[in-house]
Amino acid sequence: MLAEYLTQKVWCHRLQSTPEIARKLYHAASDIFIAERQRQLSLTKRVEKVTVLCHGVRDSANPVKLFMNKNLSTPYSCTRHLGEPYIKQTAISLVNGKPHHMHEPLTEDCEIEFLHFKQDDPSIVNKAFWRSCSFVLGSVLDIVFKQEHGVQLCESRDFPIESGSFAYDFKAKLGNWQPTQMELQIMSQAIKKFSYRNGRHAFIQPLTTSIEKAKEIFHSSRDKLAQLERLSATQDTASLYQMARHVDIIDGPLISNIGHIGRFTITAIHKLKEEGDGVCLYRAQGVALPASITMHSWTYQSLVANAMPLNESEEIVEESGEDGEEKPSLESHQ
Are strands 166-172 and 205-210 parallel, antiparallel or unpaired? Predict the structure, then answer.
């Protein structure tokens, strides 16, 4: 069964064996994403400055003041002025008190806090990490299976950390296949292969765009178009993220790069229901640790075991505070 669905060189195998037409469809979403991101950046015709106060740097009582380029500079740009430790350890930022992706441009004068996994309250960065792992899981599913199995990504599941696993739903023609532990291990290694291929700190890039532009990006994916249609009932824009050639719809912000992901294990793939014509809906689940967090292998294997049963938890719903702003609902988990 391993030979039928996967290969030991699973990452390269899929790229080498993909027909030219399928390869063009796979790259099309990324190409449109990049073009739209460049178009948005090009709208800034005149460079203006914004004042950025960076808190918790060197002396927490005295913020560092930076003058950055409006609509062009990002929190990551700020860390490059502060030194190598901030570049490496910062996973996400708080801009004026709100979670903000490290590669999302700054649009006004602001105050920034740089968040990492070992701070006193890691709840916000942990939440971003968990969502990012779901995003990465989707990219793995899009790559590891052979083309003839017709994998279609459906949607990332926004399960809380306390549920024990992150998850991603997908459709495929896999017959009665039930993955072995060896097959799951090979799939889990795909993220390491990606890191070696694209650089250990490959960026995760954000893009907020109109629903119509997002539909253009995902024009070849029926399930993504359906997801965008549901979003259009409550909002005019969609939050997209890109990692190398993989593009997905997911509420952010996510962590800045995959270098923050340490141990990453796909623990189970559950068949949820049959869709007809041999296509079934599946839920892939996994567990992971930040690269900066160490854990005894026995303890980690306990987490892996807890992440194997089907996760049917309620997804995270953001609650609004008295001022109407969304507040993170996930408790600290470390």
Answer: unpaired
- In 177-253, which ranges are E strands? 205-210, 237-243, 246-249
φ, ψ for residue 319 (rounded to 5)? -100, 145
Spatial separation of the C-alpha atoms in residues 57 and 110, rounded to whole Å: 15
Confidence (pLDDT) at 245: 85
Q: Which amino acid is at 67?
A: F
Q: Are 250 and 123 in contact (CB under 8 A)?
A: no
DSSP count for the chain of H helices, then E strands: 11, 14
- Supply the DSSP symbol for 161: G
118-124 long-range Cβ contacts below 8 angstroms, 24+ apart: 118/89, 118/292, 118/293, 121/332, 122/332, 122/334, 123/328, 123/330, 123/331, 123/332, 123/333, 124/92, 124/94, 124/99, 124/328
Q: In this predicted model, which residue has the larger pLDDT, 144 or 229?
A: 229
CB within 8 A of 142, min separation 6: which ones?
26, 151, 153, 246
**Side chain identity at 3, as an amino acid letter?**
A
At 225-250, the pLDDT tens digits run 999 999 999 999 999 999 988 899 99
Cα–Cα distance measured from residue 154 to residue 283, given in angstroms and rounded to the nearest whole number: 10
**How do 110-115 and 49-55 pair as beta strands?**
parallel
If phi > 0 it is left, if psi is from -120 to 50 it is alpha, else beta; for residue 155 that is beta
Distance of CA 122 to the CA centre of its chain: 18
User: Is the separation of the CB atoms in 256 and 89 below 8 Å?
Assistant: no
Q: Which two tokens stand for residue 128?
A: 């971003």
pTM of the model: 0.86
- pLDDT score, position 13: 36
- How many Å apart are CA 252 and CA 269, to the nearest integer? 24
Q: What value does the mean pLDDT take over residues 149-165?
A: 92
Q: What angle do CA 295, 259, 172 make, to 5 degrees?
A: 90
Task: Give pLDDT, residue 26.
Answer: 56
